[in-house]
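Preliminary data (for renewal application), pantoate complex.
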Amino acid sequence: MHIAETGSALREILKNAPRPVVLVPTMGAFHPGHLSLMRRAREIAGPDGTVVVSIFVNPIQFDRASDLAAYPRPMASDLAACESAGVDLAFTPAADSMYFADRSVTVSETLLSRGLCGAARPGHFDGVCTVVLKLFLLTGCDASVFGEKDFQQLAVIRRMVRDLDVPVEIIPCPTIREADGLAMSSRNSRLTPEQRADAPRIRRALLAAAGLTSPAEIIASATASIEASPLSRIDYLSLVDAETLQPVTSLDRPSVLATAVFYGEVRLIDHVSIPKTSA
Ligand code: PAF
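Predicted structure:
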């Protein structure tokens, strides 16, 4: 496996790389969800194509300096995981090699990114779009794999690619879950044993509500089930259009029931898709 620490080293290695080039953008601290993205990338690339994994804790998508500082960076074990997943090239830039100190251009999505997770994290999705577009340009990738767990991020990236004619195919990859249904996340390890035991209620609440027939009932049911726990606190719980992520008041289109729930300081997200059931 090659390792590139700068954009120019990356470009040099990829100059004659066999296509397709498939990129998995990550911030490291791998769990089985990341490994499933790498496996999917290998499937898309085939045995002869090139799988690139970027490991970069992107400072411009953090709204709190303390979160950025606390973000885990187990680089040695992440690189070992890439190697055993058959990755061809790991890109591990330092922040000052990705961004000029006086950078003044940002990619800004102005509709899908404003609600849900974006409401409490101003600038977060601008940071994500900017780094992802830079990674697409640096690697010249043909396709890129994103987890469906971060469904708002996936929708925003798709919109960026559509609106800016970015020639990269976006490949979604299903959420990987623990045996009890909790979506895998590097944050799960920060839950206390009591919080961890309680957290699968999020998934159960969403699934039970998804079977109901009106938006009001769906929201009320999921809210009540999550709030029944004294350990959890809802940050948001919304029913939104699956493509535009704008709130819906009827089930006349595919929609998504999405939530972010705090357990103490740890914020967990999850969602379920709800098919169109009325005209
Ligand atoms: O999902 C993530 O880990 C990050 O938001 C991404 C896509 C790697 C951009 O920094």
